[in-house]
Amino acid sequence: GILTVWDREAFSFTMMSGALMIVDWGTILLTVGLVALYVEVSLSARSSAAQIVNHVFSMIIFIVSLILFFIVPQAGTSVFFLLIMMMFVDVVAGFTISIRSARRDFGGSDHITH
Question: What's the pTM?
Fold first, then answer.
């Protein structure tokens, strides 16, 4: 495979168990991605016209990233793949939460009663 900057060690430290924890730049990027995913999903609960634009941009970024993953050799890494999976979760969760919020706002229900 192609070694990228994400494979390089950012820092390391010795844990209480004596094990050496090596943190590479890819792990740092994934951690930042997870925090960003949390922020995006928590902001999805708001229903406004700006959120619709946000969902559209999230979808565009996901599609472009997926294309890059397949056609750019440097993007064909497990780190980039996991970032794409986070983008996918962001897109699906954003639309799901928005739809549920809209149902609640318009008096619908999330379940079927018999």
Answer: 0.74
Q: What is the pLDDT of residues 4-37, one digit of tens each?
A: 777 889 999 999 999 999 999 999 999 999 999 9
**Which residues fall within 8 angstroms of residue 1, CB to CB, at 6 or more apart?**
76, 77
Residue with tokens 């890059």: 68
Tokens of residue 7, six digits: 């494979």
DSSP code per residue over 9-57? EEEEEE-TTS-EEEEEHHHHHHHHHHHHHHHHHHHTTS-SHHHHHHHHH
Place of tokens 């639309």: 95
